[in-house]
Amino acid sequence: MSSYDPPLLLGQPEDALAQGSLEGLPFDALVLVAPSPLSSRGGAFTGPVSAALACALKADAALDRGPRPPAVIAAPGLPGGRLVVVPMGPLGEDTDDVRSVAEAVAAGTSRAVDAGATRPLVWVQAPSGPRFSRAREVAALAALGSQWAPVEAREAGKAPRTASAVGVVGLDEARARSLSAIDHGRALCRDIAGTEPERMAPRRIAELCEIAFRGTGVAVSVEHDVSGYPLIAAVARASMRVERHRPCVVRLSYTPEAPASRTVVLVGKGVTYDTGGADLKTDGHMAGMSRDKGGAGAVAGLVLAAALLKVPVRVVGLLGLVRNNVGDEAFVSDEIIRARSGVRVRIGNTDAEGRLVLSDLLAEAKSIAERAPSPTVLSVATLTGHVYRAYGPYVGAIGNGSAQRAGTLELLDRLGEAWGEPLERSRPRREDYSFVAPRSSAEDVVSSNRLASVNTPRGHQFPFAFLDIASGLRGEKIPFVHLDIGGVVVDPPDWQFGRPTGSPVAMLTAFLGQPAE
């Protein structure tokens, strides 16, 4: 595999821009990102920057109104003689957030590279206040992320030219190293989530993990025999005839050097291709289903970032890697399968396979958490179409009573806002548990109804009730949060052609840095 070689992230002290000439800095373009009107911010910039900005506004008054696409201006005295101006708009409304910074910086960095720069310097002027408290960090991640190219492009030698380094004004060296670690995790997430299904079949993802975690201190183990995960084995039944499509469970274990007082166990849905199985996807809805492994990608990326950052938290990631094929061996609706937890599951729709994969992994996560200090269990999955129908481009977060009482959902909400990966919260209701309740003495829980989630009331909430029951977590005191990333795994939200986002690796990395409740 052609590995991803990200740009070097460099911090640049802000006082260095007070020099009479900036041409001596080790950069070849200045990307200026600021709220509109830019003319009102002239006092924030030094001589050559202020002069170049004044020339740009004189030549194009529309730049002062924003938001606008990046404009490249010839600017003697600035790095590389280039100024890339990216107006963001006023950003004065309560609904504005730091994603505007990320979008503007990504566009500006890409435009600078298109113009010939190889070492752009990003200078962000953001509003004050808690919503923009991480604007520089978000800007750095956006600049780095804009340079990622798909595995297929890299291996074919068709990846576009990228920057060799990116500077961000106001970052110190230690913070730049930390953000580079997060970027490495997000890049691994993108590689897993965004790569086509043959190149990233279950066992090839396992091989990628073995390579990616070498030398990080993370123990990687791969279970090729998934008979101990009966629900995963059922999903995989029609894929067993093709060796590369056979399922596996990957365990990623990171243990800090000092004894950890906190444990986070994560499970990720890694359905490398989802045909829908016997409940076959029709009307073109199968296109893009290679991205149904975004949850596994996010978990792998988070563990990598945690290890590179040496967080003081024990982190265990479980990836359920499986292909949901259709065929004469495919599992079908009406089957009753005893899950890893011992719970009897009646299958309602084979296209609701992700919750089956997660339930067996969550049963194992429960076993790990029961023996661990201060545990939290999280599942991450592109689980439903309903979450996008309900929330649009936001992570859907739902947690059990223990997670709500511990303040875990509130913490994730705050961190998501700060790091540009916002979420919408909900809570499980009695109707959700009634929806999956057994209809006979033959089963303990029903996996789903016959309809797609987008056509079902509370279509992304009731699956939490199923996970809670089928995993054996219900009634336990372990905080458990499920993150449905179906609306954010790619941007724009076109599952076949959208660009993988790496979300919510940054928010979850920040979560690992928080003290135990």
Automatic annotation (TrEMBL):
GO BP, one annotated term: proteolysis
Pfam families: Peptidase_M17
GO cellular component labels: cytoplasm
Domain Cytosol aminopeptidase: 349-356
InterPro entries linked to this entry: Leucine_aapep/pepB, Peptidase_M17_C
Keywords (A to Z) from UniProt: Aminopeptidase, Hydrolase, Manganese, Protease
GO terms, molecular function: manganese ion binding; metalloaminopeptidase activity
Domain of life: Bacteria
Family statement drawn from the similarity comment of this UniProt entry: Belongs to the peptidase M17 family.
Protein name: Aminopeptidase
Organism: Polyangium spumosum
